[in-house]
């Protein structure tokens, strides 16, 4: 898996101000608050710091932030794996991967523990399957300091790039 392909899929195509109805979640993903730590075929590692903007008034990481990241980071990992396997280089086409990474069929999340403001969260995305028309990843959210599992997601996508429909 090419780390640069993963980075390109997460590059913003618009600023938060350009997005109609922009939410804190949109700007969180777009703003670069999520760091790519490592990438290899079938596995991508990200991290981010929980800030007050992404927390409830009580200081806990909002579940919507976790769900958004499971969607965005899972999509990036699926897309970069499919592109890497097919040999297509989107930079030659002048495209980012976000619009071509398929359609989510299912995202399921289990919230197992809490994260609070100031916690560093590690997100590990593992490719479980990349077939002709469906891709599946698991997304684990862990407290970087304690190693404790905070949330676990499974994301299934219909791969429009490879589909003949």
TrEMBL record:
UniProt xrefs under InterPro entries: ACOT13, HotDog_dom_sf, Thioestr_dom
Pfam families associated with the record: 4HBT
This protein's UniProt keywords: Acetylation, Cytoplasm, Cytoskeleton, Hydrolase, Lipid metabolism, Mitochondrion, Nucleus
Domain Thioesterase: 59-148
Region annotated Disordered, chain positions: 1-20
Biased composition (Basic and acidic residues): 1-10
One BP term from GO: lipid metabolic process
Tagged with keyword Lipid metabolism: yes
Gene Ontology molecular function: any one: fatty acyl-CoA hydrolase activity
Catalysed reaction, written as an equation: a fatty acyl-CoA + H2O = a fatty acid + CoA + H(+)
Coiled coil feature spans: none
Subcellular location: Cytoplasm, Cytoskeleton, Spindle; Cytoplasm, Cytosol; Mitochondrion; Nucleus
PANTHER family listed in its UniProt record: OS04G0436100 PROTEIN (PTHR21660:SF37), THIOESTERASE SUPERFAMILY MEMBER-RELATED (PTHR21660)
Function: Catalyzes the hydrolysis of acyl-CoAs into free fatty acids and coenzyme A (CoASH), regulating their respective intracellular levels. Has acyl-CoA thioesterase activity towards medium (C12) and long-chain (C18) fatty acyl-CoA substrates. Can also hydrolyze 3-hydroxyphenylacetyl-CoA and 3,4-dihydroxyphenylacetyl-CoA (in vitro). May play a role in controlling adaptive thermogenesis.
Family of this protein: Belongs to the thioesterase PaaI family.
Quaternary structure note: Homotetramer. Interacts with PCTP.
Listed name of the protein: Acyl-coenzyme A thioesterase 13
